[in-house]
Design brief:
By secondary structure, this protein is of the alpha/beta class. It contains twelve helices and twelve strands. A ten-stranded mixed β-sheet has the order 2-1-3-12-11-4-5-10-8-9, with helices on both faces. The chain is globular, with a radius of gyration of 20 Å.
Length: about 350
């Protein structure tokens, strides 16, 4: 039997995963749903954000659906024992190096975007973020006190050619399978800071080399990451697949979220080599400011389930149904506060379930 491990996590995580769970039970009743602890919830129960047992269960599942981790309660803890460290450990432990973060503007939400409707209507871009290397994991790192008492913080941005090539491959393959846009950046737009960083130079060289070797049919362009941030709000629809390292991808995907209406709409998939379990999670965090109120938007979690059905569980028809149900629920006017409505998390889940019944 296929298994989906649910790791609701902290804050609004459990609230939005509860709705994704109801959708999963409806569209894939034979799927084995399991439950585990991650982040602050795991710290409270076991004293660490990711236990070896949870990682082993994740590795043995077909896919993992995570809510969100973190919150003020655990902010004082040392960095490697904080909730976020559990999530990073899970990504690293599963070796899910390619993070797919689609930014799609649903027709009903064009006016909820921070940008004007005519800039975002029909928006459909895919950010491919490297997820298991770069400055998030590079050594050496730390905070030290120098002889004169000055404190010094150090992070290292490190990439190997193998790490760059494997994630670039995912971006090129995705661009091949997606409708080609008739725009300036119709295939892959690779972001780096090759003007100031050594890793940026390597990134650009390796992406260019892989492209010439195996993907010359896919249009490729390069842009400095800061310029890409600007381009994303100036002319987002001219973009198709954006390839970025771990840190730039993190920032660009939050920026892209606001084009779609709300970060509560953005799902993600983290994929490793074929045949290994994928990790699915909303792009948003634990939203401490609204946690416990039952008002978080569950769509990002539900759409993350859609991605799990599609990319890890080989259930494209069920994935299509989930997608259509979310689209129809939104079109019928169902909306949580962040996208201009007044529905609770549960009521939004109800609206998606109702739309599923009507498909
Ligand atoms: P956040 O994404 O939690 O919140 C940013 C803003 O978006 C807040 O105003 C919040 O209310 C809103 N928001 C987020 N999700 C929403 C939803 N589903 N519906 C409606 N509104 C939503 O980011 P933050 O405040 O920077 O971080 C809070 C905590 O979450 C921190 O501990 C951070 O480390 C953690 N975090 C975790 C993840 C993750 O688990 N993948 C991602 C980002 C941040
Ligand atoms: C995300 C989050 C995480 C990241 C944090 C919580 C570790 O911001 O998934 O985008 O920076 O990758
Ligand atoms: Mn982020």
């Amino acid at each position: 039997m296929q298994t989906l491990l649910l790791l609701p996590g902290d804050g609004v995580g459990p609230e939005v995963i509860a709705e994704a769970r109801r959708v999963a039970e409806r569209v894939a009743p034979d799927l084995g749903l399991e439950l585990g602890l991650l982040g602050g919830a795991s710290i409270d129960a076991h004293g660490e954000p990711l236990t070896a047992a949870t990682l082993a269960r994740a590795r043995a599942s077909n896919a993992i659906l995570m809510g969100a981790v973190g919150g003020p309660k655990w902010e004082g803890i040392s960095r490697n024992l904080r909730p976020e460290a559990g999530l990073l450990g899970l990504r690293k432990g599963l070796d899910v190096y390619a993070n797919l973060r689609p930014a799609v503007c649903f027709p009903a939400l064009a006016d909820a975007s921070a940008l004007k409707r005519d800039l975002v209507e029909g928006l459909d871009i895919m950010i491919v973020r490297e997820l298991t290397s770069g400055v998030y994991f590079g050594e050496p790192r730390g905070i030290e006190t120098l002889a004169d008492g000055t404190r010094r913080g150090l992070d290292s941005q490190v990439y190997t050619s193998t790490e760059i090539r494997r994630v670039a491959r995912v971006a090129f393959e995705l661009a091949r399978s997606r409708p080609r846009k008739n725009t300036a950046y119709s295939g892959v737009l690779s972001c780096d800071k090759a003007n100031v960083m050594e890793t940026g130079v390597l990134w650009r060289e390796e992406v260019t080399r892989l492209h010439a070797e195996q993907f010359s049919d896919v249009p490729l362009a390069h842009m400095y990451a800061d310029a890409c941030a600007m381009h994303l709000v100036r002319a987002p629809r001219t973009l198709n697949v954006i390839l970025a390292d771990n840190l730039f991808g993190d920032i660009l995907s939050d920026e892209a979220a606001m084009l779609t209406g709300s970060i509560g709409m953005l799902p993600s998939a983290a994929l490793g080599d074929p045949g290994t379990p994928g990790l699915y999670e909303p792009v948003h965090g634990s939203a401490p400011d609204i946690a416990g109120q039952g008002v978080a938007n569950p769509c990002a979690a539900i759409l993350s389930l859609e991605m799990a059905l599609r990319w890890s569980l080989d259930r494209a028809p069920a994935a299509d149904r989930v997608r259509q149900a979310v689209e129809r629920a939104l079109a019928s006017g169902a909306a949580t506060r962040d996208i201009g409505g007044a529905l609770s998390t549960r009521q939004m889940g109800d609206a998606v379930l109702k739309a599923l019944d009507q498909l």
